[in-house]
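FIELD: query
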Amino acid sequence: MTKDDPGQDSASGGDDRLASLDERLQAARDAETVRTAPQHGKPEKGYSQGNRVLSELIAGPAGGALLGWLFDRWLGTSPGLLLVMMTLGIVIAFRNIIRISNERPE
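FIELD: result
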């Protein structure tokens, strides 16, 4: 075949295009593997802050209610101290949540 033969040009051009396509596909596979690889490390700060907020929301009112109930049983003032201590637990929980939300990210 001669240089002017279109069959020869398309065969070598096709090989170059296939090689280029293979390289691009391999690069895309590598990028996807890196993107979807599991992260083994410290969880993000937002995740730990969310857990802290959740624990404050549960522990504050529950701890206040428990202490109030115990003091009510001991002093015979049912349900006064239960309500006061539970309200105090809610207030303290919200104060701590505001402090957590004002922390600066590292």
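FIELD: remark
The chain has two domains: 1-37, 45-101.
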